[in-house]
Amino acid sequence: MSRLLGLFALSLSIFFPLLVTAGTRLSAEYKLTGHIYRGSVIPPFNPNLNLTWTFFENGTDRLYWDRKGEIGFCERFANYTIENEQITEVVFAANPNNSFECSKDPDMLVGRKTTTKFKIVEQQLLLYLQLGDEELVYIFKEIQ
User: Fold this and answer.
1) Is the separation of the CB atoms in 102 and 82 below 8 Å?
2) 134 class by beta-carbon count within 10 Å (0-12 exposed, 13-18 middle, 19+ buried)
3) Are strands 86-94 and 113-121 parallel, antiparallel or unpaired?
């Protein structure tokens, strides 16, 4: 186990970029507080879900989630760029101690690249996801 943690730490040190070359940088931590679906604000689908998204000034971010009352967690790190209300992420590391179910979550897969519409409004990060013809917005509130 300690060897896995050592390899994980090594991968973080190798792949952390020194600077973001274009776009905006964030430095904040956000927690999922709800969704907007069909124009209505609704609570998170799972009230036991603890989902945080942390952005670092060096152009990396950390996505982490666990569930209250359950053992296990999922954590990954990505490089990100922000341009024109779009965030592009490329996952470069996943925690080797992640729960088995994390391998089923595409957001936890090393090498995955996504580009998603997002906005920051009054200390809230809004992430716009397409579900077929409909839009689901994740509401993340900045943790002070």
Assistant:
1) no
2) exposed
3) antiparallel
Structure tokens at 119: 């906005």
- Per the DSSP assignment, residues forming a β-bridge with 128 are 117, 137
- Average pLDDT per run of 10 along the chain, which is 144 residues long? 42 38 73 96 94 95 96 97 94 96 92 95 93 93 92
In degrees rounded to 5, what are phi and psi of residue 95?
A: -65, 125
Total Cβ atoms within 10 A of residue 63: 19
CB 88 within 8 A of CB 80: yes
Q: In 3D, which of 74, 82, 72 has the Cα closest to residue 52?
A: 74
Q: In 2-97, where does DSSP find H-type helix? A: 2-15
pTM of the predicted protein model: 0.81
Helix (H) and strand (E) counts in the chain: 1, 9
Cα 68 from Cα 140, distance rounded (Å): 18
Question: Which domains are assigned to the chain?
Answer: 2-142 (2.40.128.280)
